[in-house]
Amino acid sequence: MDVLNLKGTDDTPTIVLNAEEKVFNISGRSLPEDAASFYNPVLTWLDDFATTQSGVAMKFEVKLEYFNTASSKLLLDIFSKLESINSNNGNSVNLEWYYEDDDEDMMEAGEEYSELVELNFTLKQY
Amino acid sequence: MINNESIIESKAIYEFYKNMQKENVMLLYQGDVNQSLLNAILSITEGKLDTNENGSAKKRVLNIMVECVQNIYKHYEHLEQNIKNDYSSILMLALNEDKYIISTGNVIFNDKVELIKNKLDNVNSLDKEGLKSLYMEIMKNGKISEKGGAGLGLIDIARKSGEKIEYHFSKISETYSYYILVIKIKKK
Lengths: 126, 188
Known about the structure:
The complex is a heterodimer.
Chain A: E1 4-6, E2 14-18, E3 23-30, H1 35-52, E4 57-67, H2 69-86, E5 92-99, H3 104-116, E6 120-125
Parallel strand pairs in A: 3-4, 4-5, 5-6
Antiparallel strand pairs in A: 1-2, 2-3
Chain B: H1 10-22, E1 25-31, H2 35-50, H3 55-76, H4 81-86, E2 89-96, E3 99-109, H5 110-125, H6 128-141, H7 152-161, E4 166-171, E5 176-186
Antiparallel strand pairs in B: 1-2, 2-3, 3-5, 4-5
């Protein structure tokens, strides 16, 4: 399937979704005003993945420096997609949520997402 | 202090500067607010905070600035050009002893005042746990409003600030008010 490769900017994250290479990650800053439009290709890609791929052990990495509240709901939408991928077609998902060692807010945000979705959530300090 | 002198007279500028310095104003912006301004403001603020600030306080200041700026332009896109020209927005970051103070000002419609005031009073009535519950509740069930936000902005600001949000509305006309927010963030 197609590779989704979005280069990061001052206010949008770098996103790589590559099923062949098994690389799935979002990193950088997510501060777009219109987060719904920005994340739409990601949600579409995940829908596509859900219907075409099987038996993939997905390690989905999220390593954000900042995200705005407009992005927070879209991140939840992404994680909800991962939740449904996780229980179908022999696919499994492990979500790795990175936070900088002195960034307690980012750590708490990871904990909160782990309460909102049924996914294997690993919090990783860097 | 200014004695009828225009603020752009050289002596008045010096007085203006001294006042800013006295209040430890780190950044003051007046004008149009948009996404490219946000990026500029973030990089200036980051530079100013870099030297001796711990990561959490710095990130909270930057996160709150983002929410404030995006909050302002959500209100602004519905305004007519003449009111935007007459009443531009302000954004200020200052340091008062152990706290950063972020202040914003922008025009809103009078018919939004009650709604915003209620949201602010609600957020201010909640403690840390209460704010978390409200945040989680909206994340689970909240619909994205027609203004693009899920009502999460003020809640997030209150959570990151850890203090009550101060606000003030000044009526400009039968249609508009000027809306001031003051947010404090503890240095640690």
